[in-house]
Amino acid sequence: MPALLKDIMGWDDRLLARAGVPQYPCLIDQKHIVGELYDIINVPMTVWIDEQGRIVRPAESAGVNDGVRSLDPQTFTMPAEVVAEGKRLRTSYVDAIRDWVVKGDRSEFVLSPEEARRRTEGPDDTDALAMANFRLGEHLFERGHRDEALKYFAEARRLRPDSWCFIRQTWELEQPGKASGPEFFAAVQALGDRHYYTPLELKPSAK
Amino acid sequence: MPIEVIYGDRPSEAVTAKAERDNLWLSAAELAKISGWELKPEGVCKGDVCVPIPVGREADFVRDNRQSFNLASFARLLGQPMLHDDKNGVWYFGENAGTRRSALKSLEAPDFELPDLDGKMHRLSDYRGKKVLIAAWASW
Fold this sequence. Notes:
The structure holds two protein chains of two kinds. By secondary structure, chain A is mainly alpha-helical.
């Protein structure tokens, strides 16, 4: 495992030694069904759901920030201060999850319904059409109709340019390796003032 | 050419249907099979919901003594995103964006069913009574 990944994830050797078979379900979502239902547009993103099936934190960046924009793809290194901030954010987020697990609704990280709704935008008609293009493209790709599929993929990306899930998934289908290759890093750099990950608001602004 | 229809998250189905530009005509039986909607005297129904066919626009929706139904007109009425790839005879009908938005803002977690690495299916609602953290990740 690259040292950078260990540093930024906060995984020391003690934690890694405990790694084993996950005790939770790992599901395969080939058609991005969860992405559509929960409006997930990048990874990693998380959703918190309580025992009653109520969303207490809608889809959000899972303790990650735009540090990836400082990554040197040649050396796979980042400036030390970026790594430190990434580790701090990641650790804070995992601690928040632990707090919720222990305290439930009493956790300060559980959002009020009003706050959860404020953070829930949901898709508009253009986003829904983008998903339609992705789904049709994915179906055609699976059936071996590559050229037609790529056209629908391109339209999905055009209609929803903020979905890195569409961008990276369709690029990878088009050309294995492209999702994490030079095109990806160039696209991230081209964001300019826009974020790659929407900044995480860990604590509610109202409750 | 046989037509394949993908209706939301349902598996694709090959149907006997007639595609006429942006319209897709199929039988009531095919309608129920691919979408779960049923053509009834009061309208097009699924569960407790019935959508009346707009008065004066019946010809856009039904023909041949109500033996044929235009699924594309119905999708337009419901505001569903719809696409068709004529070269390969595939039609896709998605979910209305407003319905998705309302579902999310209700804060009731939308249900889904997906396979794990061994192919075993898991449904979110089966985990009711436990906290669930959905963590989306990808290897692309």
